[in-house]
Specification:
Strand order of the largest sheet: 1-2
Radius of gyration: 16 Å
Number of helices: 10
Shape: globular
Distance between the termini: 19 Å
Number of strands: 2
Structural class: mainly alpha
Helix content: 55-70%
Number of domains: 1
Largest sheet: 2 strands, parallel
Oligomer: single chain
Length: 177
């Protein structure tokens, strides 16, 4: 499987705190993100940003400006041809998750971002393998336990079982993790 996300891991930089702070200000100032500020959901996003590689943060400010919008906003706009290529639509069940202190919320944000990047850069990838690749990214940034919590919260499906199997095989049985 293509490990697309690896390209964002760079050598440590001395200015990473400044970059993260600048990105956070930029991200929360976007008009699409007023709902995050209004609902006091910043904590999960800040925790999410703290786990992201600096190279990815820089790409999110330049190459891939990503926005997270609630699904009801998308429905209310109801405009034909609205560009969603760099948009994560947050459905009500995940908005509820973001309102809780559950650590699965950060894994959800990381997974959605990684899945979006797979769609943007590797559009020929099978959707299920993109899900697994996004899960790998979540684990690579140190959120394997949080991802497990998230997957266990989801409805029972074959996809969920497959993703849990990959998680178990690749991250919980590997002595290097």
């Amino acid at each position: 499987m293509l490990n697309l996300i690896q390209k964002y891991f760079k050598k440590e930089r001395s200015d990473k705190v400044k970059i993260r702070s600048h990105f956070s200000q930029y991200f929360f100032s976007l008009p699409e993100h007023t709902w995050i500020n209004e609902r006091n959901l910043n904590t999960h996003f800040e925790n999410f940003f703290a786990h992201l590689p600096i190279g990815l943060i820089e790409a999110m400010m330049a190459q891939h400006p990503v926005v997270f919008i609630p699904s009801e906003t998308l429905r209310s706009q109801n405009k034909a041809g609205i560009a969603l290529s760099s948009t994560v639509v947050v459905f009500p069940e995940f908005q509820k998750l973001l309102k809780t202190p559950k650590r699965a919320a950060v894994a959800y944000l990381a997974h959605e971002l990684a899945f979006l990047l797979y769609e943007l850069e590797a559009s020929k990838l099978d959707p299920l393998m993109a899900e697994v690749g996004a899960d790998k990214f979540v684990c690579d940034i140190g959120l394997a336990d949080e991802l497990e919590d998230l997957l266990l919260m989801l409805d029972e499906t074959i996809e969920k079982r497959l993703r849990l199997t990959y998680l178990t095989i690749n991250h919980f049985t590997n002595p290097d993790n």
